[in-house]
Amino acid sequence: VVILSLLMYPLLRSLALQLHSAVTGSYVSGTHSVAFINCLNEQIAKDIARAIMDKKLAAYVSILPKSSALYFWKGELEESTEILLLVKTRTSKIGELSNYVRSIHPFEIPEIISLPIDQGNPLYLKWIEESVPRD
């Protein structure tokens, strides 16, 4: 019984937080995330952003202008330019988003990382919630 309780704890905690949020109207930290995805050029960035939106994996994708990047690749220091996507979505969609982007991205190992949103404009966070379907 103790082991079952421990295994169920994350699920029960999540349900309790969702219930609390629904009743009080408060935001549950980490419910939404911002994902960062690097792209080789603007056209690839636009194509990936559109594909993400078409699949309803995000509420919003920002395409940031070209920037310089330094990184190690296969033991060598590389320098290039890239376009960065900032993807606003539900945290529960990050795994699906990552898998999908890896399947369409031209890089061998694309940068796909995410950070949970701790706080923000409640109306904006609610809009993300309404824009991205639940699992």
TrEMBL record:
GO biological process: response to metal ion
Pfam families listed in its UniProt record: CutA1
UniProt entry keywords in alphabetical sequence: Signal
InterPro entries, A to Z: Ion_tolerance_CutA, N-reg_PII-like_a/b, N-reg_PII/ATP_PRibTrfase_C
GO molecular function: copper ion binding
Stretch forming the signal peptide: 1-16
Record note on quaternary structure: Homotrimer.
Similarity comment: family membership: Belongs to the CutA family.
Name of this chain's protein: CUTA protein
UniProt organism field: Trogon melanurus (Black-tailed trogon)
